[in-house]
Amino acid sequence: MTTPKPSDPLSITVRIMGKEYTVACPPEEHEALVRSADYLNERMTTIRRRGKALGSEKIAVMAALNLARELLEAHGTEGVAPADETAIARVRQLRLDIDSTLALE
Questions:
Q1: pTM
Q2: What is the 3-state secondary structure (H, E, C) of 17-47?
Q3: Of 64, 70, 80, 102, which one is least surrounded by beta carbons within 10 A?
């Protein structure tokens, strides 16, 4: 039997909606994987509780769509993130200030 090296991937078992999944990951990503699995499990369980009798695949797709939208929103992707009306108003005012200053020159 060989002793695993610190850089060898770990075999981690996570539980999502009552099913166990074994995933390989680098040792330094172990905690992130466990937290991600817990978060996904929480999101999928919430969708299952809210919805009608949905299958696991549909619940997974709905959770993935929600998480993808949140990720795009966090990255400020145009058309996804809600408009920041205060920032828009400030930019408009700055544009007016610049235009009026340039008009004086």
A1: 0.66
A2: CCEEEEEEECHHHHHHHHHHHHHHHHHHHHH
A3: 102
Using the 8-state DSSP alphabet, how is residue 10 labeled?
Answer: E
DSSP 8-state code for residue 9: P
What is the amino acid identity at position 35? R
Q: What is the DSSP letter of 73?
A: H
Residue given tokens 């008009």 in the structure block: 103
**pLDDT, position 102:** 65
φ/ψ of 90, rounded to 5, equals -65, -45
The residues facing 19 across adjacent strands are 16
Q: How far is CA 85 from CA 62, 74, 81, 92, 98, in A?
A: 29, 17, 12, 10, 20
pLDDT, tens digit (0-9, with 9 covering 90-100), for 40-75: 999 999 999 987 778 889 899 999 999 998 888 877
- Contact assessment for residue 22 and residue 11, using Cβ atoms and an 8 Å cutoff: yes
- Measured in degrees and rounded to the nearest 5, phi and psi for residue 11 equal -100, 110
Q: What is the pLDDT of residue 53?
A: 72
